[in-house]
Amino acid sequence: MLNDVATLTVILKYHVIPGLTLAKANLVDGQFYDTLLTDSHHNIYQLEYTWTKTIDLNALKMNYDVAAATTYTYKVVPSGGAAAKITAFDINAGCPTIAHVIDTVLIPAYKDALALGAADLALNVFTAYQAVNATLPYPPYRTP
């Protein structure tokens, strides 16, 4: 995948929320955030931020400490995809950028997969021709 620049670009853009510095304290449960990824129809791909609170009743009975018996799970949920658990928050990635670490790579569900697939195919053909210094073929209806 590291050699497939088009796919890698799409995936990386899906992991970026532009224009906002979203520290953990500023994230809103159930809020959808626009990513940097758009498609040829100008659809914007979004991620949803969610969190859940769980209280372990057995631990609560043992020590009567609500804080010790409480765990929080924070997730990023892509549209139509599996959630990624946020494992670390508020990493300074250069002023004013904040990064959060997730436990999986998010793959976008393309709204116009055919257009993106055609663009990827064209890029792959172009790259293959460039690799061998070959002249690109012209469509039959067009001459150089």
Rounded mean pLDDT score: 76
| Beta fraction | 25-35%
Count of distinct strands? 5
What about the largest sheet? 5 strands, antiparallel
**Parts with pLDDT < 50 across at least 5 consecutive residues:** 111-115, 139-144
Shape call: elongated
Number of helices: 4
- Structural category is alpha+beta
Oligomer: single chain
Q: Roughly how many Å apart are the termini?
A: 34 Å
Helix content: 25-40%
Give Rg in angstroms: 22 Å
Number of domains: 1
H-E string: HEEHHEEEH
How would you characterize the overall build of this protein?
The chain has 144 residues and is α+β, with helices and mostly antiparallel strands. It has one domain. 27% of the residues lie in helices and 29% in strands. It is built from four helices and five strands, in the order H-E-E-H-H-E-E-E-H. Strands 1-2-3-4-5 form a five-stranded antiparallel beta sheet. Strand 3 and strand 4 form a beta hairpin. The two termini are 34 Å apart.
List keywords for this structure.
single chain; 144 residues; alpha+beta; 29% strand
SSE arrangement:
Blueprint: H1 5-13, E1 32-38, E2 44-55, H2 57-63, H3 66-69, E3 70-78, E4 84-92, E5 98-102, H4 113-131
Antiparallel strand pairs: 1-2, 2-3, 3-4, 4-5
Short structural summary:
With 144 residues, the chain is an alpha+beta fold. The protein is built from 4 helices and 5 strands.
